[in-house]
UniProtKB/TrEMBL annotation:
<feature type="domain" description="RPA-interacting protein C-terminal">
    <location>
        <begin position="55"/>
        <end position="129"/>
    </location>
</feature>
<feature type="domain" description="RPA-interacting protein central">
    <location>
        <begin position="2"/>
        <end position="44"/>
    </location>
</feature>
<dbReference type="GO" id="GO:0006606">
    <property type="term" value="P:protein import into nucleus"/>
</dbReference>
<dbReference type="InterPro" id="IPR028155">
    <property type="entry name" value="RPA_interact_central"/>
</dbReference>
<protein>
    <submittedName>
        <fullName>RIP protein</fullName>
    </submittedName>
</protein>
<keyword id="KW-0863">Zinc-finger</keyword>
<dbReference type="GO" id="GO:0008270">
    <property type="term" value="F:zinc ion binding"/>
</dbReference>
<keyword id="KW-0862">Zinc</keyword>
<dbReference type="Pfam" id="PF14768">
    <property type="entry name" value="RPA_interact_C"/>
</dbReference>
<keyword id="KW-0479">Metal-binding</keyword>
<dbReference type="Pfam" id="PF14767">
    <property type="entry name" value="RPA_interact_M"/>
</dbReference>
<dbReference type="GO" id="GO:0016605">
    <property type="term" value="C:PML body"/>
</dbReference>
<dbReference type="InterPro" id="IPR028159">
    <property type="entry name" value="RPA_interact_C_dom"/>
</dbReference>
<dbReference type="InterPro" id="IPR028156">
    <property type="entry name" value="RIP"/>
</dbReference>
């Protein structure tokens, strides 16, 4: 159906022009949103790569301090060790949690234990699977 009235044609062209402008604005907003999301993701990834600190498995808030014969945290975790490094501790934590995740879908909990004759140690436990003495 052809529009013959010049006034109607002008109105339709104006509507079409406004729709095109609105579409362009939506596309620009979407592209800005994508760019912002990408910048946020890159910043998070940069932060993860730059952070070589180990988060305490007990409190899950503070970073652990690792010395040759000591692992400690502000939360009170204090374990005497033999020749421990951050790399060894990170590897122990990652391997133990990964091994647990192969057998169980639940998140393990870490606690510090000490007995009358025992040295203080880090214990990983799960409400579903067995306890594992982790770091002594």
């Amino acid at each position: 159906q052809m529009v013959e009235d010049p006034d109607e044609l002008a109105v339709l062209e104006e509507i079409q022009h406004e729709l095109v402008l609105q579409e362009q604005l939506v596309i620009e907003e979407y592209e800005r949103s994508l760019q912002f999301d990408e910048e946020c993701l890159n910043a998070m990834l940069d932060g993860l790569e730059a952070s070589d600190k180990i988060i305490c498995p007990v409190c899950r808030k503070n970073n652990l301090t690792v010395r040759n014969h000591l692992v400690l945290c502000q939360c009170g975790l204090y374990i005497t060790t033999q020749d421990m490094t951050e790399e060894k501790l990170r590897s122990l934590l990652e391997n133990t949690i990964t091994e647990h995740s192969y057998r169980c879908f639940h998140n393990p909990e870490f606690t510090v234990t000490s007995g009358m004759e025992e040295e203080t140690s880090l214990l990983m436990s799960c409400s579903v699977s067995l306890n594992v003495r982790f770091l002594e």
